[in-house]
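Entry 14. Ran structure prediction on the chain below.
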Amino acid sequence: MSMNQVLTEIDRGIAVLQKARALCLKGEAAAVTKVKPGKPTKTPAKSSMSEESRARIAAAQKKRWAKVKRERNKAAKAAKAGV
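Output, structure tokens:
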């Protein structure tokens, strides 16, 4: 291939990429204009948990951690006794 042929191929590639870029930008502009101005968007409602439910979950978690801590202490005492 001569230098002119290489440059011609590069120019063709650039032209294809520029067309693709223009199409992408056109699609973005169309997506932006579809939103009606002045119309507020709705925010999803936050789900709230009752204090009672929150306290019940916290108590259950504390109970689980107490069990883990008890088992860890038993294992440590058994290891000390075995030494």
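The chain has two domains: 1-36, 50-83. Will compare against last week's run tomorrow.
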